[in-house]
Specification:
The structure is a homodimer.
Chain A: E1 2-7, H1 16-28, E2 32-38, H2 40-50, E3 57-61, H3 72-78, H4 83-92, E4 98-101, H5 105-116, E5 126-133, E6 136-141, H6 151-167, E7 176-179, H7 190-199, E8 205-209, E9 221-223, H8 226-237, H9 239-249, H10 258-271, E10 283-286, E11 292-294, H11 301-316, H12 319-327
Parallel strand pairs in A: 1-2, 1-4, 2-3, 4-11, 6-9, 7-8, 7-9
Antiparallel strand pairs in A: 5-6, 5-10, 10-11
Helix pairs in contact in A: 1-2, 1-11, 3-5, 4-5, 6-7, 6-12
């Protein structure tokens, strides 16, 4: 039976959301065992409160909590008994098959690098994020782990991202696109131009992707450095809320009935649910020698459930072995 | 009387849109003279077709047309009689007060640098763009003219942008924000971190702005390099069309009547009109020793009219003198 370890004290709503997400998985599936890590009493109380009593849930005591805004390097040095440190160590020792946290991304990445290490041949492990489009979810990477990126690493992001979207998003023959400020190959920063020259030889490369084309699904994997990706991701995440607010404040809104405004809001929220980071499951650090997944701090129980089920897929489909093969 | 020169063969819809925009201004205002530049017969025919017969419209023959996708450096070398080259030369000679084109941005910037030069003290002239927010229009800059930018130049972008939004957008006490991937000052690329350290001393600096905060109006001037700005701008421009398409394809849309879908579309387009680049007037190259404005290739006649009226404001408010003073 697959064992997946969950940080019970990660994210903005702990322990309730991680515990709830874990219980949702346990209620839906009979072949997954979950390990919850956090201060034992806190976690046990929450489990009791939410009322799970089966035997596929274990609590491992991890008394220290790393805050969302804590410096990753300081946290990892001073908090050896955090859920992140203990959970990843258990994973390295083979005591669980994957680890998920909605907590401090930097700390999780740092600890994953230190405790699990990189897949052989990987220059820089990367973190991607689901990006919604008119044709469903796509993957953008990197979205914040790597600020300055060499062209060779950008190409690897694309290759690793492709394995992810094929296996986890179920996209057949995924296409790679390079985020840039024009279609022509001589556009953009030096590293981007060099990455273009390397990617050009690949059949799965569709060329440069401009900002206007991300939501148009011109590719399945959007390659960029973490500075650009983080800005584009967060702008995208902010669309539903801000567009609704712009509509609410518009002159036109003053001519509408309460029912009409309600309809518009409700249709937009339904249609734009794919943009809602609180519903989107986590994405693994690609290139890490293990399955270490991070979710948004605001992850709902449903997002955490989805993350756990993605982690299962990553393990079962041997994504890391496929990455290793694809990089060679 | 103010004389404003317009590229009659710039943009995707010439000569009709530039000619129409010019005539709209002439019909609304009696104190502006417009000079239209382009192949004389083409332009005269269009004016006759649209039916303007007053005496505040002059045509200056500029037989060569620079294409939207033409290499700026090649175009400027080989087409000495383009509307851009002749119009800017007239401006440099004092024969007109400003020049506007919806044409090839790179060619216009290159020619502006060569023919008009920089304002004393300016490191890099920059091109900004209006960015809509829940509290109205803001300015993002640079959006494509400068890919790799030194920290000192980023700071100057902010100072020049501030003069623009105060005078042209009418924002009182504008605040400067630095596009970054986190709120903390140690976040981001080296140049961005150094720019933060310089900006920190200013009372008008509100700190780093994340992607999610652009539309929230956390600042009035968003400072970034042209790679980041171009991607954020084009993603923003694509929002209305793509969001409508995502709604149309959603499961929820299948439950709606034709009337309900029509209402949603119409309200969204009304409310999101500020995002519509076809309606937004041009923005000047800030830092150029003259008034050289560029508009979106898809500019409608209304956008061109708005651009001409902005150009007038820039001249009358002596924006360049203010920039010179602000940089000292």
């Amino acid at each position: 039976m697959l064992k997946i370890a969950i940080d019970a004290v990660g994210g903005d709503y702990y322990p309730q959301n991680p515990v709830k997400g874990a219980i949702m998985v346990l209620e839906e599936r009979e072949d997954i065992h979950i390990i919850l890590l956090g201060p034992e009493e806190l976690v046990q109380n929450e489990i009791a409160k939410q009322g799970y009593s089966g035997d596929r849930l274990t609590v491992v005591n991890a008394p220290e909590i790393i805050g969302m805004d804590e410096s990753p390097s300081v946290a990892l040095k001073t908090k050896k008994h955090s859920s992140i440190a203990i959970g990843l160590t258990m994973h390295a020792q083979g005591k669980c098959d994957a680890f998920f946290s909605a907590g401090n991304t930097g700390a999780l990445l740092g600890a994953s690098m230190f405790i699990l290490g990189k897949i052989e041949g990987v220059l820089r492990p990367t973190i991607g994020s689901i990006y919604p489009s008119i044709e469903g979810n796509k993957l953008m990477l990197d979205v914040g782990a790597n600020i300055d990126v060499k062209p060779e690493a950008l190409v690897q992001f694309g290759i690793m991202g492709k394995v992810f979207v094929e296996n986890i998003l179920g996209i057949k023959n995924p296409k790679l696109g390079l985020m840039n400020i024009g279609e022509e190959e001589e556009k953009g920063r030096e590293a981007v131009r060099q990455a273009y020259a390397m990617l050009r030889e690949r059949d799965d490369f569709v060329g440069n992707i401009e900002g206007r084309d991300v939501m148009k699904a011109k590719a399945d994997v959007y390659i960029c450095d973490g500075f650009v990706g983080n800005l584009l991701l967060k702008l995208g995440e902010s669309i539903p809320e801000n567009i609704l607010e712009i509509i609410r404040r518009s002159e036109r809104a003053k001519t509408l009935s309460k029912e009409e405004l309600g309809l518009i809001k409700s249709v937009m929220l339904d249609a734009l649910a794919p943009f809602d980071y609180q519903l989107i499951g986590g994405v693994p650090f690609l290139g890490i020698n293990g399955v270490s997944m991070v979710g948004h701090g605001g992850s709902t129980p449903l997002a955490i459930k989805n993350s756990i089920l993605s982690a299962e897929k990553i393990v079962l489909k041997k994504v890391n072995e496929q990455i290793k093969a694809a990089l060679n």
